[in-house]
Specification:
Helices cover 44% and strands 13% of the residues. By secondary structure, the protein is an alpha/beta fold. The chain has a four-stranded parallel sheet. Strand 1, helix 1 and strand 2 form a beta-alpha-beta unit. Helix 1 crosses helix 6 and helix 2 (51-58) packs across helix 6 (130-157). The protein is globular. The chain binds 4-nitrophenyl phosphate. 4-nitrophenyl phosphate (4NP) binds at residues 8-14, 39, 41, 43-44, 124, 126.
Length: 158
Amino acid sequence: MIKILFVCTGNICRSPLAEGIIREKFRKNNITGEVDSCGFESFHVGDPPDSRAQEVAGKRGIDLSSHRARLFTVEDFDKFDYIYAMDSSHYDKITRLARNDADMMHVDFMLNVVNPGKNLDVEDPWYHGLKAFEKVYLELDEACDRIVDQIIIGSALK
Ligand code: 4NP
């Protein structure tokens, strides 16, 4: 069973959106997996996702309301097969917490699944309006499609 973790700053916008999007794609494609998300700043720990994130997801039939924000922990390296950072600040923080090379083996920038090696950021929509959340949704939707494609191809090769 594949286990994927998405990481952002507050765990109320980008990473819970990615989690909800891929959860729905797993359901549609009959993929059994474990998906979670977390952040690095404690301001919103215990909070549900931002209402704008819930709105752009809800429009597509994805319900984010049960998620509660939590912080990244070193144990997450042991629990997850893939850890996707939304931007370079999260990637750098994850790198600093890594205990060894094995911890970093499955860490990548989220958008590298679409643009390999470019290390592009999913920009923080927090200070912007719904339009920025729509843009984030589309970027994450495309990236999650690629992740699901890779899982399907990988399981077909087994
Ligand atoms: P996220 O967005 O990292 O995509 O959840 C943010 C949410 C809250 C804050 C920053 C980014 N904040 O500064 O409170």
